[in-house]
Design goal:
It is built from 11 helices and 13 strands. The protein is of the alpha/beta class. The strands form 4 sheets. The protein has a 6-stranded mixed beta sheet with strand order 5-4-3-6-7-12, with helices on both faces. Strands 1-2-13 form a 3-stranded antiparallel beta sheet. Strands 8-11 form a two-stranded antiparallel ribbon. The longest helix is centred in the N-terminal third of the chain and has 23 residues, at 15-37. The protein starts with a strand and ends in a 7-residue tail after the last helix. The relative contact order is 0.17. The model has no long low-confidence stretch (mean pLDDT 84).
C-alpha cells in the first residue's frame, strides 16, 4: 500500500518533457550551425577531445535529478505495518443553516461564522465518533458523508457559505430528512443530529420530520444562533456593506432568533436546546449530552502505518547532481579505448 503526501507537486513533472524538447531543439540547432560552418567530419577533427555522447548523458542525469527532487517533494509513503483498529463512538451529523439570514451580525462576526466556530470547537472535543455535515437553506445539501477524518471535515466546514444552496429560505424539514438518511437504520449505532440555526423555518412538515427521526432512534440537539432582538441582513460587496436586504414593501428585513421552533424539534426526539451565544456553555452542554449517549463499536478496519520515502528520492537526486558536476563533456580515455558509443571509427 502507498499514498502520496503532497500529490499537488506531481504537476511539476510536466516541466521535464518541455526541457527534453528544448534540449533536442538545441542539439538540432547546434548540428545545423556546425554543418553551415564546414564539413561535419572536419568540425569533429577540430575538437577531437569533445564527446558526442556525454552532453546527452549529462542532460539525462539532470532530468533524473529533477524527477527525484520533485518526487521528494511529493513524499511517497509506503504502508509497512498492518493492524486492527476498533472504535467505539456514535454517529453525529451537523446540519448547518446557510440561508441569507445567517449573515445577520447580531452575533459577532455573524451568525454563519459563529456557527462554524461552534461546530469546529465541538469537533475538537470528539474522539472516536463519526461525523457528517449537511447544509440547508430552502433545501438541504449533503456536504460531507459520515467520516472519521476530522481534518477533512473542518476543511469542508470552513468552505461553507450562503451560496452553497441555491434555493433560499429555511427548511428545517429537509435538513432533518437528509440528516436522517446519513444513518444506517439497521445498525444499532447511536445517532445524533446537531442542528444549528436561527430557527426561522419556512417549511410546514418540520414536526413530522422530527417525529420520523425519533422512530429510528435519532436524537436532535438544536443550537440557536442569533438574538431575539435580531438584526438586518447586510448586502456586501468586496467586504463592504452596500445596503440591507429589503422586503416587497421596501422595508429593511429584520431577522430574529426563533428559539421556540428549535425547542420543539429537540423535544420531539428527547434531545435538547441551547442558545449558541456562549461558546463554552455550548461545549459543556454537548459534552455532557455525549457522555449520556451509549457508545457502540461501529468500525473494525485495517490501518496501514505509512513511512515517508522522500529521503531516497532526494538522495538519488543529489547523487546524480554530484556526478553531473564531475562529468566533463570531453572524452574519457579508458572509455574511448572501449569505444562503447561508437565514437571512434
Amino acid at each position: 500500500m502507498y499514498e502520496l503526501d503532497e500529490s499537488k507537486y506531481l504537476y511539476w513533472l510536466g516541466i521535464l518533457p518541455v526541457l527534453l524538447l528544448v534540449f533536442l531543439y538545441q542539439l538540432w540547432w547546434k548540428r545545423k550551425k556546425q554543418r553551415e560552418f564546414g564539413d561535419w567530419e572536419l568540425v569533429k577533427k577540430l575538437s577531437p577531445e569533445r564527446s558526442v555522447f556525454k552532453p546527452s548523458l549529462k542532460f539525462a542525469f539532470l532530468l533524473l535529478a529533477l524527477c527525484g527532487l520533485i518526487m521528494g517533494l511529493v513524499n511517497p509513503k509506503i504502508g509497512t505495518k498492518m493492524e486492527k483498529v476498533k472504535r467505539e463512538g456514535i454517529d453525529i451529523v451537523f446540519a448547518m443553516d446557510v440561508s441569507k439570514s445567517m449573515l445577520a451580525e447580531d452575533v459577532a462576526p455573524n451568525r454563519l461564522e459563529k456557527s462554524k466556530q461552534l461546530v469546529s470547537q465541538i469537533i475538537n472535543q470528539l474522539a472516536n465518533d463519526r461525523i457528517g455535515i449537511v447544509a440547508y437553506a430552502g433545501s438541504a445539501f449533503p456536504v460531507l458523508p459520515i467520516t472519521t477524518d476530522y481534518a477533512v471535515s473542518k476543511m469542508f466546514l470552513q468552505s461553507m457559505n450562503t451560496s452553497i444552496v441555491s434555493s433560499q429560505g429555511t427548511s428545517l424539514e429537509d435538513a432533518i430528512k437528509l440528516s436522517a438518511s446519513y444513518f444506517d437504520k439497521n445498525h444499532k449505532t447511536s445517532k445524533l443530529l446537531i442542528l444549528i440555526s436561527d430557527g426561522e423555518d419556512h417549511s410546514e412538515g418540520t414536526a413530522e420530520a422530527a417525529a420520523e427521526a425519533n422512530k429510528i432512534g435519532m436524537k436532535i440537539i438544536t443550537i440557536g444562533v442569533g438574538t431575539p432582538k435580531g438584526g438586518p441582513i447586510p448586502l456586501k460587496q468586496n467586504g463592504v456593506v452596500q445596503s440591507f436586504k429589503r422586503d416587497q414593501n421596501n422595508e429593511v428585513v429584520i431577522t430574529k432568533l426563533n428559539e421556540q421552533s428549535l425547542r420543539e424539534i429537540a423535544k420531539e426526539t428527547k434531545g435538547g436546546y441551547i442558545n449558541g451565544s456562549n461558546t463554552k456553555a455550548v461545549l459543556d452542554y454537548v459534552k455532557k449530552a455525549l457522555e449520556n449517549i451509549e457508545k457502540t463499536e461501529f468500525e473494525s478496519t485495517e490501518m496501514a502505518d505509512f513511512q515517508s520515502q522522500f529521503q531516497w528520492f532526494l538522495g538519488f537526486a543529489f547523487l546524480l547532481l554530484f556526478c553531473d558536476i564531475f562529468l566533463l563533456e570531453r572524452r574519457t580515455q579508458w572509455i574511448q579505448k572501449l569505444n562503447l558509443f561508437n565514437e571512434k571509427e
